[in-house]
Amino acid sequence: MRDIGLLISYDGTAYCGFQAQPNLRTIQQELQDAIHVLTGEEVKVVGSGRTDSGVHAMGQVIQFQTTSAIPIERWKLALNARLPQDIVIRAAVEAPPGFDVIRSATRKTYRYTINNNRIPDIFHRRLQFHHPTPLNLTEMIAGLEGLLGEHDFSSFCSRKSTKSSHVRTLYEATIITEKDSYPDTEGRNGVFHIFITGNGFLYNMVRIIVGTLLQVGEGKRTAEDMMKILESRDRGAAGPTAIAQGLCLWQVDYDLIKFT
């Protein structure tokens, strides 16, 4: 039995999330179906994380076991020929003994993209949250910095969370404006990306952080409020959950495997 790891990207617009669900189109089911067509095997694909309906991935990692003798360098092209155009395999590796796509992850990075221009971008609308209200990025960055480190993120977690602990560690959090995207005279910031890296994330955690940060950017809250909300451990103290389409699972890091 071989253990295969795949690095994949997908546009999640047309899918009801990653996890397979009866009578619904999902990323996991499309992958399992493509592997079945290729090898004749009924495999279970496991992802490094479950993205919600409408959420995208640049660097999702999946794992499955197979008895197929297909060379590792052939998996990428063979599966891409059998997958929908909005899912693509970027790399494949033989996973070493003891590798677990969930537990072996050392860091995860999410990116949330906001188009702060007055006019939406029709060609990238599926991958951005169009928010034309002027935003104070300096305050938003300061608010993000207050979340770094190990904390109980209950305030920034859906009430539907089933995790026994809401303690997570954020290593990095920053906002990057696209190179050719400039602020206008009314305080709009073009297109920018919020990158958040941690050891793990709770249900809707990034989207709730972003929804609250947007209120900071609008002047409805202060950067210092982010820490007060965090300390309250109360979901009701935080802002709304930002829409799914701006969120992308950007990268998952491992010590046991490296993709090229």
Structural summary, described in words:
With 260 residues, the chain is of the alpha+beta class. The protein folds into two domains: 102 residues, 2-Layer Sandwich (Alpha-Beta Plaits), CATH 3.30.70.580; 145 residues, Pseudouridine synthase I, catalytic domain, C-terminal subdomain (Alpha-Beta Plaits, 2-Layer Sandwich). It is built from five helices and ten strands, in the order βαββαβββαβββααβ. Strands 1, 2, 3, 4, 5, 6, 7, 8, 9 and 10 form a ten-stranded mixed beta sheet that branches. It is globular. The mean pLDDT is 95.
What can be said about this structure in brief?
With 260 residues, the chain is an alpha+beta fold.
CATH architecture title of the largest domain: 2-Layer Sandwich
Classification by helices and strands: alpha+beta
Radius of gyration: 19 Å
Mean pLDDT, all residues: 95
**Uncertain segments of ≥5 residues (pLDDT<50)?**
none
**What is the class of the largest domain in the CATH system?**
Alpha Beta
Number of domains: 2
What percentage of amino acids are in beta strands? 25-35%
The fourth-level CATH homologous superfamily of the largest domain is Pseudouridine synthase I, catalytic domain, C-terminal subdomain
Strand count, sense and closure of the main sheet? Answer: 10 strands, mixed
Terminus-to-terminus distance: 23 Å
Tally of strands: 10
Query: What string gives the helices and strands in order?
Result: EHEEHEEEHEEEHHE
Helix share, percent: 10-25%
